[in-house]
Design a protein that fits this description.
The structure is a single chain. The chain is of the alpha+beta class and 137 residues long. The chain has one domain. Helix content is 34%, strand content 31%. It is built from 5 helices and 6 strands, in the order βαββαβββααα. The protein has a 6-stranded antiparallel beta sheet with strand order 2-3-1-4-5-6.
């Protein structure tokens, strides 16, 4: 089974979902975290929204072999830290796993086998978000 994703993860801050919707970004909210698709320019945009840090997560597996990596970006200082462990990158933004569940699964990344599967899930959540905004506004 293949597992190939390239996503960004950050802590959810006030107003972030509205800004992501406004700019038509594909994202999913999972608890206190936001998981989103994006190109490298997303870091500049997230910084303008007040997000202090983001982690870029990449997996590329097929069958039993493959690679994973993460890069933590401090958006205030513009410093980055690369790791060959996704969990280490997520820990740098405060997402730490437990005995029962590692950080990768806590954020829900295990649900996505590809960016395409992520897009399908994010479409459904975006529709629900827009519906809720109409109700509360």
């Amino acid at each position: 089974m293949a597992h190939c994703i390239h996503l960004y993860v950050c802590n959810n801050i006030e107003g972030l979902e509205q800004n992501l919707q406004k700019h038509k970004f594909r994202y999913l909210k999972n608890g206190n975290y936001i998981v989103m698709l994006g190109k490298f320019s997303i870091k500049k945009l997230l910084h303008s929204f007040g997000v202090p840090a983001v982690v870029n997560v990449t997996t590329d597996y097929f069958g039993c072999g493959g690679e994973q990596s993460s890069t933590f970006y401090d958006l205030n200082t513009r410093k980055s830290v690369y790791s060959d462990s996704i969990n280490k990158g997520l820990a740098m933004i405060g997402i730490v796993g437990t005995k029962e569940m590692d950080a990768f699964d806590m954020v829900g990344l295990g649900k996505y086998r590809s960016n395409d599967s992520f897009i399908e899930m994010s479409k459904a959540q975006a529709k629900e978000f827009r519906k809720q905004q109409k109700i509360t506004v």
